[in-house]
Structures are given as structure tokens and as C-alpha cells.
Design brief:
Length: 260
Amino acid sequence: MALLEIKELSIHFGGVKAVQEVSFSVEKGDFIGLIGPNGAGKTTVFNAVTGVVVPTKGTIYFDGRQLNGMRPDRISHLGIARTFQNIRIYPKMSALDNVAIGLDSHASYHTVSAMLGLPHVRRRDKEIRETCLEFLDQVGIVQYKDSETGSLPYGIQRKVEIARALATRPKLLFLDEPAAGMNTAESMELVSFLQTLHENTGIAIVLIEHHLEVVMEVCKKIHVLNLGQMLASGTPKEIQNNQDVITAYLGERRTPHDGE
């Protein structure tokens, strides 16, 4: 059984057909790319899986459970985490406190206990801090633990967001354009980081990314959306040589002699 199974997913916003009959699956430990031109429906698929939008048609199964109609918080607790194209952090909070928010989604004590400062709450808070340090270390930024997150370089902020997602202990991680705003050198550093993260955790990852060099380097399989529909699926090499994909990105057909 696949970890994630999307079957004939369609999402309409009024008369706009954002996603049409899209199907694909994610196995445990996969590293999959989801690419396509702007407006192809990629983030809309993420939003449907994480409960942000309700599918018009189709079914979504995760770890054997149907997600249709489930609240985003419940889906998160089942083991799906995500980052966003526009970084969503608390800029005035420290990196450590930002990560702690992910752990707090699994809080093991009540508000009253926290207000009273009971011993088991203090022990739990110490455990949370130690665990947050582990996640920050895992993404290579533990030295920034006490820094105000909004003052950190863009690439470090991205890693804070990923560390917070990892703190929810997901089985599946959605990354929505983590290289957005990065230059070529920063993008290649991200490639190394994502490869190491995947090797060390074994978490299944689905990556949306416009920097195709990143996708081609880290993903084992790639799905291409265009105008809300599945255009192609295959290995990075197969996708690079797919004429329909080339046409979707460049708006024209190419022959083997083009550019020679």
C-alpha cells in the first residue's frame, strides 16, 4: 500500500478548473518532484492533501486513511508536514522557539498545569528545548538557536521552517519551492542539504520547485502538471527529454538540431 494515494483529484474554484483528474502515489522513502509552469496546479494539490482546500472530485488516502474532509490539524497529526512558497515563520521569535511550535502541536499537558508551573511541565519544557536543539542541529543551524528569526539570512530562515516541519515528526514532508529567491550557489547548497536530510531521515518528500536543476539532482521520480492536468511522469532523464514537457515550458516544439 502506498503511503499517499491521490486518485482522480479535481479541484474547481467556481468556473476555474485548477486541477483535473490528477492521480499519483508516494511510497515510503520516496523523493518525488512535482513541477510545471506557473498556474499548473501544483500548490493546489498540496493544499488539497493538507486539508486547506476541499476536492471537488476524487479521493486522497494517506497511510490507509481517507483524508477528504479532514481538518488540517488532524492531517498534520497523522504525519504530513509542509513548508510554504512564502516563508511562514514568527520573525520576532528565536529559531528555537519557532521549532518549538512544531513540538507544541503534540503537547502532553494542559493549560492549567502550564500556568501553575508544575514540575512535570518544567521537565517537559526542558525536553522540548533539548529536542528543538536536535532538530536545529539536524538541519545544520543550531548556532542560530537564540537568534531572532526575522534577522537571519533567507536560506537560514528556510531551514528554520524545515526544522519546524520536522519537529511534527512527519512521515511525509511537502516542500513548496524551498529554493525560491535563492541564487545558483544557494540552490546547489540546498541540493546537498536536501539529499543529506533525506538520507538521514528516510522521510518521504514531495518537492515543488521552479529551479529545475534542484529537482533533477535530488528527485528520483518527477510528475509534471500543466493547466491542472498530469502531463508526464518519469525519471529526471525521461522528463528532460520529453517533448511535451519541453513544449509546456518553452511554448514551442524543439527539434534535435535546435540550439546546435
